[in-house]
């Protein structure tokens, strides 16, 4: 692309991506290993399942509240960046606290520590998650540039997620266990999250004279935003059943016989995913992003079924299938978060209410809630198939086949169920661009309707 296509600077775009590296070190640390960590310190799997689910009651409350706060609070130096600055210390400190459960505590005390620390971490993460995604709407009003920025962020997130999956199994024991590892990762994450807090320029402001948003306006914005509800319902179904990552370390320990093999699996999954993510901005110039997302979901579902029948006895075949499945999953991982700005523009267009913070709070709520449900479901599945907690516990005969079945079948079925829900989503890139122009006052609502009537 030529420089004329960008409102943002190279430094801003690079810093935006770096923030997602740090943010997703924290996110993936919990997504991949929180079930393993809690059971390693002696909390029963069924208790872990209930604990994670209950904590998310707070998540259900704090995301919409914080989205409303973001929309109503007006800082002098930006709408989103001040919140990112607050998150710089909040997330590292709460993460370290969570992974510092003393081994000598009773089970009840460990559960209490886990619950309190998880609530604090979830609150800290909310402070960064809504603003970093919402920031694209104040950095630029160009749809393609927003797509590029989100793609940069998602590729950075994939790199960070793959890095965590590779590094943790490889050095956890050598570095002294969970807590020293988490301290090191937290420092690295903090360093990468800092630059955007000082380079970002929030140059896109609401039209002058725009009134303050009332609570009633917020509910009206959500109530009329049917496509946001559709896309995130589909996401909730597929993401909640995606227990593969949460159980990956245990599968490597039990089915493949070596925890260190998770490093190999992570590389095989990460490289195609990153390649897919890098390609998204270029593909999205030629193909509507929803079309890409839908067919990527279809292909990943078929690949999941193939994985089950190949089994875990032949590692080379398993790695080949996992690698092939990683490409469409990478496309989905990047594109999914491009729908929220579109839904925000749609909500503004149909209601006249510009509630960007609310829109992105819906995204962060569904992402975190699905992650919690995934972890809870993974722990529940372990309990149902007779998993014995403890880092060096010996499992009963027949456990491995049961573990493999839930490891593959549950996410494949969830992905399949999400497809008919996805078909209800009607927003397309050309339609959203016209809505964006109308929302910005570049054309009238009547002129926009003349162009897009019947397309949404």
Task: Offer a few descriptive terms.
globular, mainly alpha, Growth Hormone, Chain: A, 456 residues
Quick structural overview:
With 456 residues, this protein is mainly α. The chain has one domain (12-202, 212-425): Up-down Bundle (Growth Hormone, Chain: A), CATH 1.20.1250.20. The chain has helices at residues 10-40, 45-72, 81-98, 107-134, 136-139, 143-175, 178-193, 196-199, 215-223, 226-240, 244-254, 261-284, 289-310, 315-335, 339-351, 356-384, 399-422, 429-439, 445-452.
What does this structure look like?
Helix content is 77%, strand content 0%. The protein is mainly α and 456 residues long. The chain has one domain: Growth Hormone, Chain: A. Helix 1 (10-40) packs antiparallel against helix 4 (107-134), helix 3 packs antiparallel against helix 4 (107-134) and helix 6 packs antiparallel against helix 12 (261-284). The protein is globular, with a radius of gyration of 22 Å. The two termini are 29 Å apart.
Question: Helices, strands, pairings?
Answer:
Elements: H1 10-40, H2 45-72, H3 81-98, H4 107-134, H5 136-139, H6 143-175, H7 178-193, H8 196-199, H9 215-223, H10 226-240, H11 244-254, H12 261-284, H13 289-310, H14 315-335, H15 339-351, H16 356-384, H17 399-422, H18 429-439, H19 445-452
Helix pairs in contact: 1-4, 1-6, 1-7, 1-11, 2-4, 2-16, 3-4, 3-7, 4-16, 6-12, 6-14, 10-16, 10-17, 11-17, 12-14, 13-14, 13-17, 15-16, 15-18, 18-19
